[in-house]
Design a protein that fits this description.
TIM Barrel, 3-stranded parallel sheet, about 10% strand, 12 helices, 4-stranded parallel sheet, single chain, alpha/beta, 7 strands, about 300 residues
């Protein structure tokens, strides 16, 4: 795989009451989302509370998925942190396990570094990992990171590393930026914000979606993707997945999804989030399930 495509779930990270990653829930949820139809999983994205986890926790939990029988070529873990040596460590570990790609934030905090500084960061990452199997998804989420991955930077990196820098996750929610990246770097697989832009993106040359709500609605989003690729009428399906997404998003993506899973599974550990987030509540889960109606009937079904 040189140019990824499809529907990708940045999976939630469940925690025990004492804050440790809940290994059994982590594995069972990952398998359920894949079984529902997600093409790939992306552990340790924003939805997975990645920047609240230590490097060791992230590496160990990734190993748990592989040990549980999940093929590493179905995994696209987030590996970007501020310090380059730590991004190298996480990325080299994932590539060594055989993961399909790594999703890498720009180096944040030093917001004045600009495209030149970020080009150096990504270039040194690739050179230090020094593994031809490495595939990089650039991760643009400036509302959180404070640092953009511009269309020009994307084109520069793809030209310098055409077999390595192969994809771009646009979480800014700005279609103009998505379209500009598609135009500037046509060889790069671009994933616009969420399934809310899935059909528009596919019609414009995008590759699919990497979306939080694939955690709960993978089957419907996969069906929409397949129908859109086949040029079928997707009007009703498109409306339905957009409504599902908006319902969850308006309530807060991470706590709302964890609350739904807690209610439907009967396992209160799903209510746990890492600081600085506050924990979710069963009341929130009940309200979400009521709001989603029949579109949530599949959640919690094995």
């Amino acid at each position: 795989m040189t140019r990824p495509q499809g529907t990708i779930a940045p999976i939630l990270t469940p925690f025990e009451e004492d804050g440790r990653i809940a290994r059994d829930l982590w594995i069972s949820h990952a398998k359920w989302v894949l079984g529902q139809g997600a093409h790939f999983l992306s552990p340790f994205g924003t939805t997975g509370e990645a920047l609240s986890l230590s490097l060791r926790e992230r590496m160990q939990a990734l190993e748990w998925l592989v040990e549980a029988g999940i093929a590493p070529d179905r995994l696209m873990p987030g590996t970007g942190v501020t310090a380059l040596p730590e991004t190298v460590e996480l990325s080299a570990h994932a590539v060594g396990l055989g993961c399909a790609s790594v999703m890498v934030l720009p180096s944040f905090f030093y917001t004045a570094a600009g495209d030149g500084g970020q080009a150096r960061y990504y270039s040194e990452l690739i050179e230090r990992v020094a593994n031809p199997a490495m595939r990089v998804i650039l991760y643009h989420i400036p509302q959180n990171s404070g640092v953009p991955v511009s269309p020009a930077l994307t084109a520069t990196l793809n030209q310098a590393f055409p077999d390595t820098v192969v994809a771009y996750k646009d979480s800014a929610g700005d279609w103009n930026n998505t379209a500009a990246v598609i135009k500037a770097a046509p060889a790069v697989a671009v994933f616009p914000s969420s399934e809310a832009m899935l059909t528009k993106g596919l019609a414009s040359g995008a590759a699919g979606c990497i979306s939080a709500t694939v955690n709960l609605n993978a089957a419907a989003i996969r069906a929409l993707y397949e129908a859109a690729v086949a040029n079928q009428d997707v009007t009703e399906a498109d409306v339905a997945v957009k409504l599902f997404r908006k319902t969850i998003q308006d309530a807060g993506l991470i706590p709302a999804m964890k609350a739904v899973l807690a209610v439907r599974s009967g396992d209160s550990r799903w209510l746990n989030l890492r600081a600085p987030h506050e924990n979710a509540t069963l009341d929130l889960g009940d309200r979400m399930i009521a709001a989603l109606g029949a579109s949530a009937d599949h959640i919690g079904q094995s």
